[in-house]
Structure to design on (566 residues):
């Protein structure tokens, strides 16, 4: 009891100091900060849509870069103004990180056209024709032309097998553009605005995830910055397919799961059911996160059974039934539709064994084993598409995580060197942060950090031991299952395109969590840190990781700013 009293006193002292040195931004309530961020995101997305209809969109690449550079200089001026005026506190730093992420995404969309760095985009021919075009753009155009879901077998036309939520929302956005007098070509160009919005909202959800995990200060900033400035999330902000909306729903599933672990209530179950259900009718692989969630459900239900309270048991049986009644009709609706109308089971149409992307001719070890040094091709770290040139899944994953499926022809020597350095750092720190995630989650679950009353002392917060254990199980299981499902997907559909990083891009959220928790545990105030050489070594190692991540993000931004391929 004496120890707990000291812990409580330390907690109150730290909170008081935090309030004195970091006063709330204008005394705003959290919901006001949330509204400010959401309003800013919407305003910039609308401004980007308007800018695409101006002469700026058709100006030379370096003219666009110059204009956008001026915006970033103005942003830097705002940052220093807040710093010097003493207004740069926790909330304003988060706002400025998200604002810079929004500027980067808007800049990318303005620099790239509808067909740049897309995946399975297809094409459109407009309302004036009765053509049915393939790809995601063709899928959206079909709904736009005929005002209904495709009544053909979705496996007979490429990309039509995808669940329709993203394409239906895109159709409504197209209709709104046309109603406002936007030309058809510009309306289709503006299809990029929706993924732009989704990508921006992913930053907000990541911030909320880090806050739920009680990550603050440096851990919060580096974790959020990683998600905000990683090149994959910026490139996908301009993609017109359903990947970005899928990642947004998966981020929401992680957030709502962590909230439910703390609250264990029916309203949380309903939110989770809606997130999983709508995620599944955006892209079926959203259901992967239901596996780690089901483990948490099972753990909780076992604990309810052990209490031997009949009323409580019936209550939770009812709650879980409500969850199933909500998620099943929404999430399985597309599968059931295709089974009834066309007799088609879930799957992905494949290009066939004659495709240069076909990898089944190579052994499982060549495709999924540890890559040899020559497999990485560090001298030219881009995805060559052909399986003959590169067929290892992990190499392709790292290639496409930084540079999508680009294979540049005319790249300057300076940019190539920068790409080589960035790629090597990405591989090294990608492996390190995966181990960091396991280390911090195991630490969070260990009883030795549980205190005498099942509480764990952390910088400024007290965390329940059971909550920490469930956090760790959910997050670590989710990360491992994501990688296993990715490997299974590559085996079932043996093509190099199956190894694209976009299929596991949600893993960036897990790495953000690893960075946040790593800073929380290993770089916490000296009074809360463990003594000894090992603790100091952990702190040094965490500093190296932080700086490595910052260098990767800065170098990636420079590469894309001066890359002539637009």
């Amino acid at each position: 009891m004496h120890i707990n009293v000291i812990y409580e006193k330390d907690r109150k002292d730290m909170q008081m100091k935090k309030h004195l040195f970091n006063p709330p931004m204008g005394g705003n309530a959290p919901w006001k900060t949330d509204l400010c961020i959401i309003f800013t995101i919407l305003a910039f997305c609308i401004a980007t849509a308007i800018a695409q209809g101006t002469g700026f969109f058709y100006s030379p690449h370096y003219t666009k870069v110059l204009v956008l550079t001026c915006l970033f200089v103005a942003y830097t001026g705002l940052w220093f103004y807040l710093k010097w005026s003493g207004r740069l506190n926790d909330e304003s730093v988060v706002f400025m990180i998200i604002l810079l992420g929004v500027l980067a995404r808007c800049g990318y969309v303005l620099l790239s056209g509808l067909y740049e760095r897309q995946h399975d985009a297809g094409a459109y021919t407009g309302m004036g024709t009765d053509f049915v075009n393939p790809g995601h753009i063709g899928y959206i155009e079909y709904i736009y032309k005929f005002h209904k879901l495709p009544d053909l077998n979705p496996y007979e036309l490429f990309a039509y097998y995808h669940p329709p939520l993203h394409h239906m929302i895109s159709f409504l956005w197209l209709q709104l553009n046309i109603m406002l007098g936007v030309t058809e070509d510009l309306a289709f160009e503006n299809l990029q605005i929706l993924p732009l919005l989704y990508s921006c909202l992913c930053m907000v959800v990541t911030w909320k995830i880090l806050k739920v995990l009680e990550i603050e200060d440096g851990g919060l900033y580096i974790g959020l910055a990683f998600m905000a400035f990683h090149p994959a999330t910026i490139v996908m902000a301009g993609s017109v397919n359903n990947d970005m909306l899928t990642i947004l729903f998966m981020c929401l599933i992680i957030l709502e799961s962590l909230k439910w672990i703390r609250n264990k209530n029916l309203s949380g179950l309903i939110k989770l059911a809606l997130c999983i259900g709508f995620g599944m009718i955006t892209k079926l692989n959203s259901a992967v996160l239901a596996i780690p969630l089901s483990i948490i459900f099972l753990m909780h239900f076992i604990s309810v059974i052990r209490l031997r309270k009949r009323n409580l048991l019936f209550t939770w049986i009812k709650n879980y039934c409500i969850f199933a009644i909500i998620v099943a009709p929404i999430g399985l609706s597309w599968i059931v539709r295709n089974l009834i109308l066309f007799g088609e089971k879930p799957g992905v149409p494949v290009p066939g064994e004659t495709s240069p992307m076909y990898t089944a001719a190579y052994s499982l070890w060549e495709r999924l084993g540890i890559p040899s040094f020559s497999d990485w091709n560090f001298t030219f770290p881009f995805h060559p598409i052909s399986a003959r040139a590169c067929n290892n899944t992990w190499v392709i994953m790292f290639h496409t995580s930084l540079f999508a499926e680009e294979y540049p022809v005319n790249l300057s020597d300076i940019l190539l060197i920068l790409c080589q350095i960035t790629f090597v750092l990405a591989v090294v720190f990608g492996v390190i942060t995966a181990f960091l995630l396991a280390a911090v989650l195991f630490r969070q679950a260990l009883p030795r950090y549980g205190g005498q009353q099942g509480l764990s002392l952390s910088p400024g917060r007290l965390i329940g031991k059971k909550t920490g254990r469930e956090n760790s199980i959910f997050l670590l299981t989710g990360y491992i299952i994501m990688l296993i499902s990715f490997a299974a997907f590559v085996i079932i559909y043996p093509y190099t395109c199956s190894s694209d990083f976009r299929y596991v891009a949600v893993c960036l959220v897990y790495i953000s969590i690893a960075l946040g928790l790593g800073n929380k545990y290993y770089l916490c105030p000296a009074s809360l840190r463990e003594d000894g050489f090992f603790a100091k070594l952990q702190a040094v190692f965490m500093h190296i990781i932080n700086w490595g991540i910052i260098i990767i993000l800065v170098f990636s931004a420079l590469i894309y700013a001066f890359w002539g391929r637009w």
